[in-house]
Amino acid sequence: MSDADYHRLAQEALARIEATADRLLQQDVVDIDTTRTGGLLELSFPNGSKIVVNTQPPLQELWLAARGGGFHYRWADGRWADTRDGSEFFEALSQHASTQAGKPVVF
User: Fold this and answer.
1) What is the tens place of the pLDDT at every residue in 18-72?
2) Nearest CA among 16, 17, 10 for reference residue 38
3) So what's the pLDDT on residue 4?
4) CA separation for the pair 92, 57 (Å, rounded)
5) CA 49 to CA 105: how far, in whole Å?
6) Which residues contact 35 (CB under 8 A, 6 or more apart)?
7) Residues 9/20, Cβ–Cβ less than 8 Å
8) Rounded to an integer, what distance in angstroms lies between the CA atom of residue 25 and that of residue 10?
9) Measured between alpha carbons, how far is 47 from 43 in angstroms, rounded to an integer?
10) Would you state the pLDDT for residue 29?
11) Fewer beta carbons within 10 Å, N or C terminal of the chain?
12) pLDDT grade, residue 77 (50/70/90)?
């Protein structure tokens, strides 16, 4: 994959997360605050916990850090796949966010 393709796909993923968090806040589902600095997006939950999604351009990966651990994802077959077990990024993010929010959250 070219660097331009990676940057486009990574930025689309971060934008999707931000838009979903905004929608969840507007619909009064859960109060997830987002803070974005360049390629780093921090999700803050009402209980004080955080999830961090970080782009890693040299490796062409997305990194996810949550209470449940740290995970690396690489673009493969049209999706962000975990480099260890192949699980999909947005499914994992939803699972970790739901755990930390104490209610169902789907990205």
Assistant:
1) 999 999 999 988 999 999 999 999 999 999 999 999 999 999 999 999 999 999 9
2) 10
3) 97
4) 21
5) 15
6) 41, 42, 44
7) no
8) 23
9) 12
10) 87
11) N
12) very high
pLDDT value of residue 28: 87
Residue with tokens 């004080």: 48
Map tokens 């390629």 to a residue. Answer: 39
Contacts for 64 with CB less than 8 Å, ≥ 6 apart: 51, 52, 53, 70, 71, 72, 73, 89, 92, 93, 96
Residue 43, burial from CB neighbour count under 10 angstroms (0-12, 13-18, 19+): buried
| Predicted model pTM | 0.94
